[in-house]
Amino acid sequence: MSLAPKNIHSYPKFWPYKKGLVPAPLLPMSSKEMNELGWDSCDIIIVTGDAYVDHPSFGMAIIGRLLESQGFRVGIISQPSWHSADDFRQLGKPNLFFAVASGNMDSMVNHYTAEKKPRSDDAYTAGAIAGKRPDRATTVYTQRAKESYKGIPVIIGGIEASLRRIAQYDHWSQTIRRSILSDSKADLLIFGNAERAVVELAHRVAAGENIKQITDIRGTAYMRQGIPEGCTVLDSSEIDTNRSLIHPQADPYVDTSNNNKDNCGDKTDQTKSSKIDPNQGAEQVIHFDQRTKGLKRKDTVIRLPSFEQVKKDRYLYAHTSRVFHLETNPGNARALVQRHGERDVWLNPPPIPLSTQEFDSVFELPYTRKPHPAYGKLRIPAYDMIRFSINIMRGCFGGCTFCSITEHEGRIIQSRSEDSVVREIKQIRDNIGDFKGNISDLGGPTANMYRLQCRDPKIEAACRRLSCVYPGICPNMGTDHKPLTKLYRRARNIRGVKRIFIASGLRYDLAVRDPEYIKELVAHHVGGRLKIAPEHTEDNTLSKMMKPGIGSYYRFKKLFERYSKQAGKEQYLIPYFISSHPGTSDKDMLNLALWLKRNDFKPDQVQAFIPTPMAIASAMYHSELNPLKKITRKSEAVKTPRSGQQRKLHKAFLRYHDPKNWDVLRQALKQMGRSDLIGNKEECLVPYSRIKSAPKTQRPQKRKNDFHHRISAENTKKHNR
To answer: Which of 504, 488, 355 is nearest to 422 (CA)?
Structure first.
């Protein structure tokens, strides 16, 4: 598993197409479309829970077009009926394998709110119709695909598979669920950005390799029995050992803002001697805390606590989360293994990020940028939102504990070239008939991490921090926004382009390092309002989120207002906040509500914390422990809002201005000893309750039609008898 991977476009085209492959106008979704292309079969069939949109913001389009560029015939089965295997046979038997994904979202997040209420619509479905995919779609689709054609391999991927690749807490069932590999019985799982792994896999299967024997591709997971001979096992299946640490592991969350650059990487010497465990077979077994110096990472695997252990023991669950997240850097990650019953789930190290040239090529494949015509005039809300947006980067080194980007895309930024982005804008201008000159976004997971990277590749490869910006920005992290500013200027000067907006989330703690970028952004790329996400104001909560203090927000706000005024524009910041995050107390939410009132913010929508699978904050939520620190039986407790009543209260604090929440807030304020915040004074959070006065006694008025009144009264008496 080399760190200098093969270029994804260096493989020879699949043999049926050596003489030349013409890209399909659209990847076929029916046998009729296959016939029109002259295909007798598909080599690979992608099954997805989303409507098929041939746009590089949709996973099935990227993977489908990439495999097509390799010479494979690729078909799409979109949102099949899962009640039988019939829909999975509509394109015939694939020659190589099925590739299954739930879509751009985890199906449970897609279906249910944070309070587990069914959502009324689905942004990734034509007509926004809910219910077009099953709960736990990846598992269900895999089982139906296996029923449709016996013996055909099924590969799973996408965000649902990535976030469920080991045992994970499931908010909707409130249980610890097995790895999705175990539940679905898939042959292989591809996690993270799949391009590199899926291309290699497709060519190797096409060359005749047995899917069960392909176990060495980075970014893949599979089930196996036992540990290969020659491996060294770092046993991390227990905590609270009596073994002393001669050279304890460096804390990956230590603030390095005042240190020199050599302290960023984990340069720990591991000098304890190893031993052979006679109960484990031929492999070396070393306790995780007794790592030896000179171990070869490619021959080392870390054993996590088993599914059965983490299901019963919240301490081991939190410990597993910590160890897992410390092994996410492609430069130094080891393989992970977790026992499920009699078999192991084996996770290879994460994939090596794409080079700029590879990344450019993926986003410049021949997408039509339109939904499949089978949907007619039905709107697909997710497509409407991104149809004129352009992805310029992927990944995020922020490490926010509630976010799934770390587990899926990783923390190393992959950026496109400026020329590639410009070519895509021109392609939209020249080929999309209803383009009016406005690009809705130039961004990605984060708007302003374009081309930001560690100043030293060696330090980056050795680093074990989960965030390059918390608790302070690492001195090794470049914060120069000049390449992004240059891209903005060039893009908006393209003939036919009127406005370019920035809609992706902005890391304002990074932006304040480059005021020239903020000036450029404010003057040309804000449509009156800019959304940013402080998430909270209180340090207690922010420390569990790994988010910067509110002071960074104030610094950004000052620059934003200054440059807006210089540009002669009246513009506003719209801050986003999360309620009920692990570690948040009622007092924290009260302080946030008072901050909102002082700053005259009245949020219309409230984001309640959702414990998505495998996120660090989800481990906090389930275990009520803090995996950001070493887990012991004496680890600090993290008080977590879990009850429906407390979560409702925390949402009410964010919407303090809504009269529907005033009764709840009055009761809570009284219980918290803060009745002084109830009243009509400026500093009060909610007004006094209105006491309805008794109605005045009035003489009964004579009805205009007394005859009908008497008849009605008589009928009522008869009915009551």
So the answer is: 488
Whether residue 75 sits in one domain with residue 211: yes
The rounded distance, in Å, linking the Cα atoms of 155 and 63 is 13
Tell me the pTM. 0.88
The angle subtended at Cα 663 by Cα 657 and Cα 668, nearest 5°, is: 95
| Alpha carbon 440 to chain centroid, angstroms | 21
Domain membership flag for residue 143: yes
Residues near 691 by Cβ (< 8 Å), separated by ≥ 6? none
The verdict on 195 and 270 lying in the same domain is no
Are residues 524 and 492 in contact, defined by beta-carbon separation less than 8 angstroms? yes
* Burial grade of 127 (CB within 10 A; 0-12, 13-18, 19 or more): middle
Alpha helices per DSSP H over 227-281: none
pLDDT of residue 263: 31
Q: How far is CA 105 from CA 133, 162, 177, 178, 689, in A?
A: 11, 11, 18, 20, 43
Q: Which of 223, 244, 264 is the last residue of a domain?
A: 223
Question: Which of 59, 68, 60, 114 minimizes the C-alpha distance to 617?
Answer: 114
pLDDT value of residue 19: 56
Domain count, the chain: 2
Copy the structure tokens of residue 69. Answer: 């560029």
On whether both 216 and 160 belong to a single domain, the answer is yes
Do 576 and 586 form a contact (C-beta atoms < 8 A)?
no
Q: Could you tell me which residues are beta bridge partners of residue 302? A: 234, 336
* pLDDT at residue 288, rounded to an integer: 72
The answer on 236 and 194 residing in a single domain is: no
- Cα–Cα distance for residue pair 64/62, rounded to 1 Å: 6
Q: Name the amino acid, one letter, at 574.
A: I
Give the tens place of pLDDT for each residue, 433-470: 899 999 999 999 999 999 999 999 999 999 999 999 99
Q: Are residues 137 and 52 in the same domain?
A: yes
Query: For 387, what's the count of Cα atoms within 13 Å in the CB-facing half-sphere?
Result: 21
- Which CATH number do you get for residue 54? 3.40.50.280
The verdict on 207 and 268 lying in the same domain is: no
CB atoms within 10 A of CB 390: 24
Q: Which of 304, 319, 341 is the last residue of a domain?
A: 341
Q: CB under 8 Å to 258, separation ≥6 — which residues?
A: none
Predicted confidence at residue 717, as pLDDT, reads 41
Going by pLDDT thresholds of 50, 70 and 90, the confidence category of residue 202 is very high
Query: 471: cis peptide before it, omega within 30°?
Result: yes
The strand pair at 220-224 and 188-190 is best described as: antiparallel
Rounded distance between C-alpha atoms, residue 618 and residue 237, angstroms: 20
User: Within this chain, do residues 236 and 216 fall inside the same structural domain, yes or no?
Assistant: no
Give residue 4's pLDDT: 77
**Alpha helix ranges (H) inside 31-87:** 31-37, 59-69
Quickly state the pLDDT bin for 20 (edges 50, 70, 90). Answer: low
74-78 and 44-48 beta bridge pairing: parallel
Tens of pLDDT, residue by residue over 605-633, are 789 999 999 999 999 999 999 999 999 99
Q: Which domain holds residue 166?
A: 15-223
